[in-house]
Each structure stands twice: as C-alpha cells, then as structure tokens.
Write a structure and sequence with these properties.
205 residues; 5-stranded antiparallel sheet; alpha+beta
Length: 205
C-alpha cells in the first residue's frame, strides 16, 4: 500500500526542499503488497513512514492499509504518538514493523521513531554513512513498547534511506543520483523475490 500514487515517482518541483523516491513490489506469486509507504508534504516539514506487515499476502496488505490510514490521520502529532496510534489500530490484526520520520529543511534536521526490525540510514553526499537509525524491538499490534524520538542532522545533499526487510541489509545507495533512481536500483539489486519489498529515499536539496 503506497499512500498517494504520485509518491511512486520522484518529487522535485521548482523550489522544492527535498527530493523523494519510492520503489516497492509484492513477493513473487502475490498480487498485493504487504508493505506501506506514506509521503506527506507538510509545508515546512516532510513526513514519511514505512511499514512491513508481518508475512505477506492479503493479511499483511490489510495491516499496511491500516497503518497508512492511521499515519495520515495523525500526521500532525509528535512521532511517538503517531507510532503508538498505529499500534492501537493494528491490535487484533496482522501486526507490522514500522518507522516514521519528519524532516525540517529550514532547520537542516530530522527526527525518527521505529518499532521492530526497521532501519533508516542517513548518508552524506559522498555516500558515507553518517548515522544509523534503528527501531526498537517489537511488533505494532502486539509487542510494541514506547519509543523515543531520535534526532539527526539532515543538511543539503544528505540522503535518508529506509527499506523493509524484503531488501537486503547490505543495500547501500549509489550516489550521486536522483532519489527515484536510488530507490529503484536498491530494489532491483537487493530486493528479495520471496518477500514484499519497499524502499524509501529522501534527499535534502
């Protein structure tokens, strides 16, 4: 489930403060995607989220849809509240692991929360990893615990990369390149055919 189909293509309008790329596909043999991605331009800020429904197929896709809807409804809230709200929405459903991040271009910074085996990476313009952002253990909808916001620097040229575990943890962005090309290449070269896979890339202009 991808919120706003336009987010599948690079967002780079004149004067934009960030460039976004999203690539995703379901596991081989499945017709629906059990991952969810949200990209919301909030004016001064950009909110993004990625979730991986447990397993794949229709139950995972239903969990991803619930996650996406909840993020959109709570988008103005602090990040820990968004993730806690998603946990509440997934109780009684197939669970999910997820991350949410918000970027403020004017302040050259971002903030991150994550629950489960989800990872975000901040990479400098040269491709060197600047900061690893890891989620806290647990599964939204069942074993989720309170999370704290992790701040990070996000200056011009920096790149944020996040993906579900349907993408190998060895994946690294090939820079310099447009955000959509980075996402497409990571999915093509490091996606696991037997699992749902999604990749989200944000580059600070």
């Amino acid at each position: 489930m991808i919120a706003a189909p336009a987010a599948l293509r690079t967002s780079k309008r004149p004067g934009a403060r960030w460039e976004v790329g999203v690539a995703a596909r379901p596991a081989a043999g499945e017709r629906v995607l059990g991952d969810g991605v949200v990209v919301l331009d909030q004016g001064r800020a950009l909110l993004v989220a990625l979730c991986d429904g447990v397993g794949h197929g229709a139950p995972a896709a239903a969990a991803a849809r619930a996650f996406v809807q909840c993020v959109r409804e709570l988008a103005a809230e602090p990040l820990p509240r968004i993730l806690a709200g998603c946990h509440e929405a997934l109780v009684g459903r197939r669970g999910a692991v997820a991350l949410v991040a918000r970027f403020d271009a004017a302040e050259a910074r971002g903030e991150f929360v994550g629950g489960g085996n989800v990872v975000g990476r901040v990479v400098g313009p040269s491709g060197r990893e600047v900061q690893l952002l890891a989620g806290r253990r647990g599964v939204l909808g069942s074993t989720f615990r309170k999370v704290d916001t992790v701040p990070f620097v996000f200056a011009s040229g920096d790149v944020f990369v996040a993906h579900s575990d349907g993408v190998s943890s060895r994946a690294r962005p090939a820079l310099p390149a447009p955000a959509q090309r980075v996402a497409d290449r990571i999915l093509a070269e490091h996606g696991k055919s037997y699992d749902d896979a999604s990749c989200l890339v944000v580059r600070a202009a």
